[in-house]
Amino acid sequence: MPASPLSPRRVVTVPDERWLDLWPDGSSPLDVVLWPMDDDLPSGALPPGGTGPDLVVLPYMDAGAALARLRTIDGLAVVQTLTAGYDDVLPHLPKDVTLCTAAGVHDASTAELAVGLAIAALRGFGDFARAQTEGAWRPGTRPALADRRVLLLGGAGSVGGAIADRFTPFEVGLTRVAGRARDDERGHVHGVDELPALLPAHDVVVLAVPLTDATRGVVDAAFLAALPDGALLVNVARGPVVVTDALVAEVTSGRLLAALDVTDPEPLPTDHPLWRAPGVLISPHVGGDTTAFPPRARRLLREQFDRWAAGEPLANVVAGPQR
Known about the structure:
Elements: E1 11-14, E2 31-34, E3 55-57, H1 64-69, E4 78-80, E5 98-100, H2 107-123, H3 125-134, E6 149-153, H4 158-167, E7 173-178, E8 182-184, E9 187-191, H5 195-198, E10 204-207, H6 221-225, E11 232-235, H7 244-252, E12 257-260, E13 280-282, H8 293-310, E14 317-319
Parallel strand pairs: 1-2, 1-3, 3-4, 4-5, 6-7, 6-10, 7-9, 10-11, 11-12, 12-13
Antiparallel strand pairs: 5-14, 8-9
């Protein structure tokens, strides 16, 4: 059984040095141990009689080896990610262990990239960069983001809200869509069942949904076919939200544009047709990996560790007994 948050053995592990000095004044209520989870826990890291850390923080990038270790940690009670997505963790999560995400930590960075990709794709930044390597001056009229009709799928979530806020000053018509229709502080949210009627009336579609059974492959051939000629698809969600073959067919024909921070497969193989398709701009899954990430992650971890030490409910719980 997992350890109680009130247990005298209160050890948490963090994957790198950035998360060690969360309490500069020395007031840490826990023993914080550095453990990248790529090898055994350092000897002497646990108090006498301890069997394993109570809470582990997974590495931010490339957590594959760490995930394989989760079922081997005696007494593990909580797994904390440094990402908002958690679909890759669930298959490795031991029974009766709570999973918490870093929801909110990457909102600003991901929202910036979503808007940046939309502007870059519409205004032809990729073409300009290629022309620069040739020393070629190639002016021309390009679509503006202003006056575009933007549909935000996942618009009621944390990242979606940040994206919506950043699109607003660009004079776009913004439509937010989520799993069900409702109203919130930003206005009306359409339900996903309304997509067939909404898609033909929008020039830009931004994907900001988590990867779940409901969202996997939601952007399929029918979804893309419903978009008007010249529409732009921006994906800052997860690659498998989009059916890649369907997207390749549309962008290869030149009918649609795409700006992708995530792909399926990922990393995208060197010989994949998306690299060479016209009107496609690709960034290598860098939506949350900016200078804005560490300070926000530090705040989250300190608050989370304080809660754990005090036996209070944890934040961002998505699976396990504390959900």
